[in-house]
């Protein structure tokens, strides 16, 4: 959407200052309500209608989308609580020194803080929907703390104290910035100011109240072409890295849903935490076997993760199917019950009208009939509730069976792949033990054809030290593998138990509520009948 180039960019104008002698005004409920009334678009447009006859319906804070608190002599932002729907906020021409207490206004798109006494840009981090921001005519010297304002399209920060040309590089991050006003800052007097900005703000359409000239833009790109090329290369690399990080983050989120993140990082975790193996890795003989071990280990883990994610996806689908089936029978039962209750209520109202118009003898008979009707209604509703509960239990039995089968299948997958991981660890340990034993013998005979480092010499100090290190890191690795496998089994069982328990608790609470509702209905009708009998 093309921004209105001047909706948030004040044109140069005489600085309107509130009288220094004026008392500071605190933002309170009365001030906010007065501001809402002064700008209320719901007031009648008919000039002939007396304002005395206008009834102003007080708006709730959550209903307000625009709030204008300009020219109020406000020294600090405060008490703008509950305005969660606010999209436009005007706080211009006040005495505000600090930007704060706005972080809850996460729907804000338009913010005017011009003509204040602000020295530092801050407190805007949570306002990620902001598109228009005016900080015109303040005392700001540094562009900063706006990294999260990715949607910013209009920025007015003219007539401040920005003097560092390099600081303008900060504007590069705003990919949607189309309108920029910097006029009136010391930096604007530099000869290269305009070209410097045009090269860095990639989609700029208006700069300092003027449409960007295509010829000037071409000149800027020509003058700074080498710097621009380096900048684009750097940004391309950063964006590629960001995509990699985002993919990694999404993958981790998916793994966490199935509690597989510990398996994903198992190899790196156990190597990092094993102090004995970190000592042993100084030996050159370890390098090739370790590289092969790592590659094969992670291949097995990746297959494990793929198969377990697939099983978890099936579990989620089964759960969704179960929920849909349960909601169908609940909705059907509720509709049937409501229809019966409405029929009974209609009949009861007709009968009670007859009761009021009848003689005592006929009245007794009619009320007795209604008494029987409510007893039949109660029994019918209770029977239907029992029927619904039985249907639920049947669905639960089928769901439980399916989850048990999937959990068992998952456990078999885990056991199979973790068995392979143990085999790989055993093979790696056997290989490095053999190589280390051979090398130890050469060290003892002084037949080694290369010089050992100090750490390697400590490992080969004696055969017992060597065997202790070999056994220790092998035991540690197996312990990590066993612990991770056990955790996966426990989580799978726990997820199944918690899911089933949650469904049973929900059904139990629904059943109690339904029985209570029916009992209250019966009590209400009986009270009606008792009153009619008098």
At a glance:
With 534 residues, the chain is mainly alpha-helical. 58% of the residues lie in helices and 4% in strands.
Question: Would you mind describing this structure in some detail?
Answer:
58% of the residues lie in helices and 4% in strands. It contains eleven helices and eight strands. It has helices at 29-38, 193-200, 214-223, 225-257, 261-264, 266-273, 275-280, 287-357, 360-444, 454-459, 463-533, and strands at residues 66-68, 88-90, 110-112, 132-134, 154-156, 179-181, 206-207, 210-211. Helix 8 (287-357) packs antiparallel against helix 9 and helix 9 (360-444) runs antiparallel to helix 11. The radius of gyration is 38 Å and the shape is flat.
């Amino acid at each position: 959407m093309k921004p209105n180039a001047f909706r948030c960019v004040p044109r140069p104008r005489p600085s309107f200052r509130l009288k220094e002698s004026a008392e500071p005004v605190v933002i309170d409920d009365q001030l906010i309500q007065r501001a809402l009334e002064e700008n209320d678009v719901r007031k009648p447009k008919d000039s002939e209608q007396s304002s005395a006859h206008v009834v102003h319906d007080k708006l709730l804070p959550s209903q307000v989308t625009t709030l204008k608190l300009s020219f109020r002599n406000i020294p600090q932002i405060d008490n703008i609580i509950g305005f969660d729907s606010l999209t436009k906020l005007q706080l211009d021409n006040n005495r505000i020194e600090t930007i704060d207490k706005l972080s809850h206004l996460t729907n804000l798109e338009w913010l005017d803080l011009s003509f204040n006494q602000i020295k530092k840009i801050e407190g805007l981090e949570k306002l990620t929907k902001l598109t228009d921001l005016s900080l015109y005519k303040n005392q700001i010297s540094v562009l900063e703390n706006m990294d999260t304002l990715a949607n910013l399209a209009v920025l007015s920060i003219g007539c401040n104290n920005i003097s560092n040309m390099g600081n303008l590089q900060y504007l590069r991050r705003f990919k949607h910035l189309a309108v920029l006003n910097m006029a009136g800052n010391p930096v604007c007097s530099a000869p290269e100011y305009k070209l410097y900005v045009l090269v860095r703000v990639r989609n700029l359409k208006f700069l300092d109240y003027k449409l960007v000239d295509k010829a000037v833009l071409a000149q800027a790109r020509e003058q700074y072409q080498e710097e621009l090329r380096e900048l684009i290369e750097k940004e391309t690399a950063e964006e590629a890295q960001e995509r990699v990080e985002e993919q990694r983050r999404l993958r981790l989120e998916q793994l966490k849903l199935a509690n597989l993140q510990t398996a994903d990082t198992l190899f790196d975790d156990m190597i990092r935490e094993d102090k004995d193996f970190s000592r042993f890795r100084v030996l050159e003989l370890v390098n090739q076997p370790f590289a092969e071990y790592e590659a094969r280990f992670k291949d097995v883990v990746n297959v494990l993760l793929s198969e377990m994610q697939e099983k978890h996806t099936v579990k989620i689908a089964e759960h969704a199917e179960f929920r849909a089936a349960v909601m169908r029978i609940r909705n059907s039962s509720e509709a049937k019950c409501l229809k019966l209750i409405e029929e009974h209520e209609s009949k009861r109202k007709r009968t009670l009208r007859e009761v009021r118009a009848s003689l005592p003898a006929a009245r007794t008979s009619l009320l007795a009939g209604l008494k029987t009707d409510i007893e039949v209604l109660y029994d019918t509703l209770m029977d239907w509730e029992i029927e619904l509960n039985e249907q639920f239990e049947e669905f639960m039995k089928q769901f439980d069976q399916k989850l048990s089968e999937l959990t068992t299948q998952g456990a078999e997958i885990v056991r199979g792949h973790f068995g392979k991981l143990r085999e790989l660890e055993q093979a790696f340990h056997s290989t490095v033990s053999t190589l280390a034993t051979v090398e130890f013998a050469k060290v003892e005979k002084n037949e080694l054809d290369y010089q050992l480092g100090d750490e390697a010499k400590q490992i080969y100090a004696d055969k017992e030290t060597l065997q202790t290190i070999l056994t220790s890191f092998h035991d540690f690795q197996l312990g990590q593998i066993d612990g991770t496998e056990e955790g996966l089994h426990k989580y799978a069982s726990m997820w199944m138990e918690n899911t089933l328990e949650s469904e049973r608790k929900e059904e139990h609470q629904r059943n109690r509520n339904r029985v209570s509702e029916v009992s209250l209905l019966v009590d209400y009708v009986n009270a009606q009948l008792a009153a009619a009998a008098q």
